[in-house]
Amino acid sequence: MLKKEKKLILRKNNGFTLMELLVVIAIIGILSTVVLGQVNSARDKAESASVKAMMANMKVQAEIWYDTNGQKYTTTALTNTTCPTSGTTNIFQDPTIQKAIAKIITQTPAGGTRVCSISGDFWAFYVPSLKGEIAPAKGWCIDNSGAAKVLTTAVWAGSTTDGSTGICPAS
Fold first, then answer.
1. Alpha-carbon distance 24 to 111, whole Å?
2. DSSP of the chain, one letter per residue?
3. Partners of 74 in the β-ladder
4. Crossing angle for the helix pair 18-68 and 95-107, nearest 10 degrees?
5. pLDDT by residue (tens digit) across 107-146?
6. Residues 148-160: pLDDT tens digits?
7. Left, alpha or beta for 87 (phi > 0: left; psi -120 to 50: alpha)?
8. What is the pTM of this model?
């Protein structure tokens, strides 16, 4: 009988039980869910930062256009419209700004129109939302005054509702 008991004891120590394996798999599943959630959040924040950086570069390029084109942002006003894709009459048709807008469109969520507004003295660019940072009902706006901020609605050239010379009102 002693031999039989030893065999049973040895069999018990040969591996993990089903319950132990299930617990380990559950823990790994929970940890991977947490890690993947953090990775996706970080990716969205990186895309938002990239879009903001491109929009900041657009501001610089717009000022270069202004200085080299008779101290005006356009010869033809655009109000409340999608950004033009051809021509040479305003800052949004500058090749550098066109490339930035194209890249921004690929990095922002679908379902909203990126809006360009411009008059001789004012301009604004509005993106309806940025991933991971702004609620879907909000957007990001930059303008000629140097503003770069979150807005609840898009605003257009000449609508200086905050009393400044810029387009993006305080919100």
1. 42
2. -HHHHHHHHHHHTTS--HHHHHHHHHHHHHHHHHHHHHHHHHHHHHHHHHHHHHHHHHHHHHHHHHHHTTT-SBSS-EEEEEPP-S-SSBGGGSHHHHHHHHHHHHHS-SSS--EEEE-SS-EEEEES--TTTS-TT-EEEEETTS-EEEESS---TT--TTSSSSSS---
3. 90
4. 160
5. 777 656 677 878 778 888 888 776 656 555 577 888 888 8
6. 887 766 555 444 4
7. left
8. 0.67
